[in-house]
Amino acid sequence: MRGWLFGLSALIIGLDRWTKHLVSHHIGLGDAITVIPGVFRISHVLNSGAAFSLFTDSPHPEHTRWFLIAFSLIAAIVVLGILLRIGRRMTLTAVALALVLGGDIGNLWDRMRTGLVVDFLEVHIVHYHWPDFNVADSAIVTGGILLLLATLFTKDESHA
């Protein structure tokens, strides 16, 4: 089963790299292509911060970059260790962690290479503009939601 889980992580990394490459080479920085007017655009922005553009306006951007790299590396190592331990069975938790691992490595790749993460999915909900995001971010959020669901709906075997 571990092979399937690591394959899922690799798929996320590959999709993230491919989509960021396409956007970077076909949409000018700051430009966007409207897909659904008023709702969804494919944009090209660079994010020096974390999810939802947190820490973007940091007074020490280089410190922020290295903090985010360190945090992402530690998270990847921890998730990898857990997957190696629990990955013998295909569970909701294992799939969630494989998604988080792939997403984490996808954004870490950008951060280490350039210090900036390419974001390109732009969503508007009524009058709210959701911060631009990418495939890696989507995998991390989806994995987080699946972890929450696994926690809420999986029987605790230790009390049986």
Describe what you observe in this structure.
The protein is of the alpha+beta class. It has one domain (2-154). Helices cover 57% and strands 18% of the residues. The protein contains four helices and four strands, in the order H-E-E-H-H-E-E-H. The chain has helices at 2-26, 61-86, 92-113, 135-153; strands at 32-36, 40-47, 117-125, 128-133. The chain has a four-stranded antiparallel β-sheet with strand order 1-2-3-4. Helix 1 packs parallel to helix 3 and helix 3 (92-113) packs antiparallel against helix 4 (135-153). The chain is globular and about 45 Å long. The model has no long low-confidence stretch (mean pLDDT 90).
Give descriptors for this structure.
single chain, about 160 residues, alpha+beta, four-stranded antiparallel beta sheet, about 60% helix, transmembrane, aspartic-type endopeptidase activity
Question: How is the topology of this model organized?
Answer:
Elements: H1 2-26, E1 32-36, E2 40-47, H2 61-86, H3 92-113, E3 117-125, E4 128-133, H4 135-153
Antiparallel strand pairs: 1-2, 2-3, 3-4
